[in-house]
Amino acid sequence: MRREGCRLGVDFLLLYASQNGNARGIAEDLYEQCVSGGLKCQLKCFSEVDRDFLTNNVTCLVLVASTTGDGDPPDTARRFWRGLNRQTPAAATPFTGLSYTILGLGDTNYTNFCNFGKSLDRRLQALGAERFYPCGWADDGTGLEIVVEPWIEGLLPALRTHLASTPSSPQTTPSSSHTSPSSPQTTLGECVIESLEIKEMDRRNDNTDTDTKDNDEADGRIGRKKNRRNDDKINDTRNDDKETDRRNGNMETVRVSVEKSSEVGSASSDNLDCVDSSALMNTVKMEEDRADNQNINDKLILTEDWGKTEENGNTVELMAAKYNVDLLPLRAIQNLSVKSCALPQDSKLTLPVLPPPYLAISFLNDTQENATKSPNDDEDDTMKYSNDSWENTEVHSPSLPYPSAASEPVCTQITSVRQLTRDDALKTTLEVTLSLPKESKGKFEYEPGDSFGVLVKNPKLEVEILLCLLGIREKADLTCELSVLPDTKKKSAVVPKFIPNKSTLRDIFECSVDIRAIPKKPFLRALVEHTSDPGERRRLQELVSKEGTEEYSRHVRGASLSTLDLLIIFRSCQPPVTTLLEHLPRLLPRAYSAISSPVVNPLEVSFAFNIIEIPRIVSVTFSRRGICTGWLASHMEKNSSGLEGIASPTDQKSDNEDISQAVEKLSVSEDQKTCADNMDQTIGKLSKDQDMHVLIYCRTNQNFRLPQDPTTPIIMVGPGTGVAPFVGFLRHREKLHFMDTGLKFGKSWLFYGCRHKERDFLYKDELERFRDSNILSHLIVSFSRDINNEGAKYVQDNIIKHGEALAKLTVDSNAIVYVCGDARNMAKDVFEAFVTVLATHVTQSDFKPREFLAQMQIQRRYLQDVWA
């Protein structure tokens, strides 16, 4: 039975379910490609539709769905998923006549890869829907683009064929600029670059009937024209007159350094934007022989207004010297493999269509700022934090909720920190205790094992370097507003919801966007247009091209190349600030498991973490720390004057350099650099004038909790910092037993592992106390680097060693298994160890270990809190 047709007046509905933004970004890009190719579609989030909506209105459905947690749907899709699974009459198929396909996003580092997408697939089929195109399962562990790009490449022609076979489809006849049925089939969303030189500009100038209102980006960083009268409001607008001026070389630019690069930076912009599904894949040789285009790096320098002019040297190197950063020398940067062209210079390159710019930025003077201020702004009930990290509260209160947020952010104060590892341990582990405000009662409530989100900031030094690279230091602290370009070609253009309506560029780059994000191909494609050096431009084209897929996977994705490192390496790439704000993803909070118990102290929460040290290797142009762990550690070092702390990688000084002011927010004093020889060292309790505030919030979908029945046996597996939630479990039970000595607990096993017993055995004394007092039945430890490890090097070895007892607990006593820690290796190895245990010690002839464990997962008896 075929439905009458889509009642939305479109060819198909494009739905996305996104937790961190990946699925949404892919869906938006797909939407742009479909619309530019003449297909009618509607883009919606799962939260905007329900089962009845699909039943009554939709005949063709394309879904882009990510998986979160332990195979769960994203927060935005939970209501939809519950409705889709509501009971239906036997043999009922309400979706008969609905055709669909699914692009699922997941990570093979986790056990339930693409589980939500696959569950959607099964459920839609059970309700009568039929696939018109094979589903795609993209792996974030190896690179989403490996599956996403070919899947989309095949989807567009499959959509056209499917819709053409549906007489009731409202599909419109493509215009002459689109692929006709008799035309050679091409891949929508791709274009072929013919030439970046003056020849192409001349050819484009002859096409006067073509819409030419596109790319001014190469003509400045923020404002495009230096001679604008109103310097207080710089708005990125595009029109035909300006485009003509730019082509004729008449537009005076804000930046001296880009005057010669405007031709190169926009040479193929308009031609590429006009390419759609009718563009034939006839590639020709690229020409990169502009001899007079001198490397722009030779004349860039640090100034007080725009950051770079022609006479004072190189910005980044000056910044590195000022802040004592161990930046790779220029010669080493020039020789990096990510910067070296790998494909023959005359080879054909197929590039994706240039993403249309869509954001404009304006700066407000005092009069304008006061005029736009709400009468209630001065009475804002949002906490105003004295700490410099949280001065601009609007930055941390965006209209878009935080991922997995079950509460509003709560302002906490760090009360103590202690070091859990010895100085000579490979990793430094800290435990931080936060004090919750009294008014948070009822707003922030947790149980042992729950995780919570910590709002973070990008390091000030990295933000300062980025501002200099973009040439916007002078404007960085002015209040600005973002808006959508009125003539943008982007159909679904909106200002990103995670960027506040009114803020400063410094605050936005510190608190809202992830400047360490690995640049995705649409972003790289946009950066090509703002790269003046022919060699650097060619290399970026290689990385973004279909022919350079392996190069991108190896040198960008595989090397975890950050956006900041990319701009340091490709120094002639100088995009306008709006380009970054259009493409950079949200700076996401970091999740940590509570190791405290509210029954011990309801106004405290503690967590433990390793300080992530990122050395200067491969494409990392200078050493740094993890964003959250480095932020917490560096602030503790700064605020714990006179107390011992952890030295930062950039703390070394030379005797003849006075950089005390330059690094006052980043480094520690000399007497702070000695770590204690003993473990569990208390770094300090902060005094009132050393307050440090941290914003945290409760997370949803908390299943990693103690069983409601305390007599249920539990098996805990947590090497390294994975032991943290189990310490919380045991502290909780110890307190409950103290309050009621008659309370009985089921058997409890803890499998813990680390490298060295004497260096990094976390919570050693406390765990042994739990065991000796029978709060913990069995403490099984393994030390992978110690010589005398009794044949059990890792936790999975000890699981197999004690397999007989564990098999009885899981099969006969309904024990709950908890696994916490590394997802890439440990979690998989532990799962396989339990498979081995059950296969070895369960004698039932028809027993299937993997199916049994899968059933345990469904019953929430095999729980994982793992991270990659």
Task: Walk me through this protein's architecture.
With 868 residues, the chain is α/β, with parallel strands linked by helices. Strands 10, 11, 12, 15, 16, 19 and 20 form a seven-stranded antiparallel sheet that branches. Helix 10 packs antiparallel against helix 13, helix 15 (521-528) runs antiparallel to helix 16 (534-544) and helix 24 crosses helix 25 (826-841).
Task: Write a short abstract of this structure.
The chain has 868 residues and is α/β, with parallel strands linked by helices. The chain is built from 26 helices and 25 strands.
Number of strands: 25
Average pLDDT value? 76
Q: Tell me the fraction of residues in β-strands, as a range.
A: 5-15%
Q: Per the principal axes of the C-alpha atoms, what is the gross shape?
A: globular
List the helices and strands and how they pair.
Elements: E1 12-17, H1 22-36, E2 41-45, H2 51-57, E3 60-66, H3 78-84, E4 99-106, H4 115-126, E5 130-131, E6 136-139, H5 145-164, E7 190-192, H6 198-206, H7 240-247, H8 262-266, H9 269-273, H10 315-323, H11 330-334, E8 350-352, E9 359-363, H12 366-371, E10 410-419, E11 429-435, E12 451-454, H13 460-470, E13 479-484, E14 502-504, H14 505-511, H15 521-528, H16 534-544, H17 549-557, H18 563-569, H19 577-583, E15 590-593, E16 604-610, E17 613-614, E18 624-625, H20 627-639, E19 681-685, E20 693-698, E21 714-717, H21 724-739, E22 748-754, H22 764-772, E23 778-783, H23 795-801, H24 803-812, E24 816-822, H25 826-841, H26 849-858, E25 862-867
Parallel strand pairs: 1-2, 1-3, 3-4, 4-5, 4-6, 21-22, 21-24, 22-23, 24-25
Antiparallel strand pairs: 7-8, 9-13, 10-11, 10-19, 10-20, 11-16, 12-15, 12-20, 13-14, 17-18
Helix pairs in contact: 10-13, 15-16, 23-25, 24-25
